[in-house]
Amino acid sequence: MGVEEYKQELDQIIKASVYGSGMSTKAAFLDTVSELLVESELDSEFQNVEYEGVGYRQHRLQLDGYIYNDLDNSMSLALVDYRYDDSIITATEIETIVKRARYFLEDIDYILKYAEESSPGYGLALDINQNVFDIRKYKIYLFSNNQMSSRIKTLEGNQINGIPIEYHVWDITRLYELNEKVNLTEDFEVDFSKFSDKTIPCLAVTSGDDYQGYMACIPGIVLARLYITYGAKLLESNVRSFLQIRGKVNKGIRNTIIKEPTKFFAYNNGITCTATSIDVDNDNGVHVLKSCVNLQIVNGGQTTASLAMALLDKKDSLEQNIKNIYVPMKISVITNENSAELISNISRYANSQNKVSESDLSSNHPYHIRIESLSKSINAPALNGQQYSTHWYYERARGAYAQETHKASISTKKTFEAQNPKKQKFDKTELAKLVNIFDGRPNIASAGGQKAFLYFMQDIAKQWDKNSDSFNEYYFKRIICYKILFRETDTIIKTAEWFNSYKANIVAYSLSKLIDIIKKRYRDKSINFKAIWQNQNISLALRKQLEKLTKFTHDFLIDDSREVQNVTEWAKRPNCWLRFESLQFPLDAEFVSELVSNSEIIEEKVSAKKLQKELNLDRAMIELYKIKSSVWINLQKWNVVHKVLSPTESDLIRVATKINANYFPTEKQCVRILQVLERARDEGFPE
Q1: Fewest CB atoms less than 10 Å from the CB: which of 47, 161, 253, 312?
Q2: CA-to-CA distance for 516 and 522, rounded, in angstroms?
Q3: Whether 154 contacts 147, CB under 8 Å
Q4: How confident is the model over 71-92, as pLDDT tens digits?
Q5: How far apart are CA 228 and CA 222, in angstroms?
Q6: What pTM was estimated for this model as a whole?
Q7: Residue 592 and residue 443: Cα distance in Å, rounded?
Q8: At 56, phi and psi to the nearest 5?
Q9: Is residue 295 left, alpha or beta, with left meaning phi > 0 and alpha meaning psi from -120 to 50?
Q10: % pLDDT > 90, the chain
């Protein structure tokens, strides 16, 4: 696929998003490219804020999104230039557009004086004006679906109020290259001598053809300055995601910095790092670390961030304390072609003590595989005389939908898209948002796709371990009903006379509120989700109820009594939901009469769980049949040495060794045998 094909495909994705979610073209485009940057670990997720205005010098102001990244104290502002032609973006046009974001920063006082308080840009301007964010750098991004002129090489940075500004232009060519997994980031080398005159003694521990291991002791001042200089670039993706959830400063670490800096080495577990190369020198018979290429901290992000934040905090004057701190440092130098997988494993195992696991951070969890499988097997009802059923397509991996017909003929592609309409496609970010909303967490759903997904997965992983059979056909249909409710609520809001902004927050809070009211006031009742599934739409009574509730929600979110002036940020706060949850709101008698008994739902859930259990047993038998007999024999021999399996588990493996044309274990035995094999693999069984 070339750039032109990618542009056409991207345009189709944007159109489908606009149609399916009701968001604007700009917002849909920003969401798409934002996800691309997040997955490529180049930045965090942009918060949509569409603002246009005129400054005090009649300059045009524009802002389409923002991120505040507390890992490196940077504020990123996004501008979208979405065109419906193939024109080239000239240097003059780029300069004109990026200035609109700069003018937004320069004219904050003017915006606060003349802009509507309910406008999205007002809240952000107020937060910046009141120093809610500790901003040390501005990044202005321009995203476009067209190509920029080849004459443009770089955009020189400048400053505003003493804070540096850097500019990033992402045109369609650059987005295409990123989409094709081209590594746009250059190798970076850390020269430790530039951060302190203190040396870093190190010891070579182990080495091989593709791996070298070192132990070192890094001065706290060096680690803090490294983080201040490189920020999130130093942190491997799992650590970065973990810190975004847990916060940037650990109180225990800070107390040690303040009260007992010389005991930091004793109290702290240290940091685990990877690098692609390392330079070690000899200083009077002692090996010292000079430099590393592509240094990544895969465990110890909170230690690193806390030292940096303590150094930046001028109130306590902790620089001298930090100079007395030393941190244990393990470095793995990875050089082979399998480096990505090896680094991932190092990160996974190093973080296991902090419960940052694949279950928490990955879309490869069996839950997502189950949802993907259900999406391909369950037919939505045919409506309006349609002669064929359709699917609600779950895109577990980004780009999977397009890949389905990448090399297919035109007729095959049309057939696939007819059976899997783009308006019925949803991904893991949308899934997480829906579950968070209907589980009563609208504040988390408002926190952005990435953070919402991480919270969601931590909860789902626990539920899966408890009872994976709960995730079945009934569950999948309920998720689709959530999406239909979300879609229709979105449409109600954007067509309302009172609507101005904050649509996503109003949708989330309205639906969470509706579910909460029913649970508390009508405990034996529920929304008729079965009817929503059958009609692929909501009833007139439910629509009228949502029209009233969304207006009530809107008025609450923009009420002057809110704790945070920026409505978007206010919606992310737990207190926002707690306060809204406590408010009284009467439901219409017509809507209440449509509620169904929970006993019907319980019966349906039990039946679906039983069916899923039977399916799992069938799949276990098929999976076991595929495994070679030599695996079971090798596992028996391995266990004689390692003694990992219990007597019962050993008996099950003995059963597996007897599988032949005339004998096969029972369904339940198949499940247990596979579980034993998985446990052995976790304990190191190499097969």
Answers
A1: 161
A2: 10
A3: no
A4: 667 889 999 999 988 888 888 8
A5: 10
A6: 0.62
A7: 26
A8: -70, -20
A9: beta
A10: 26
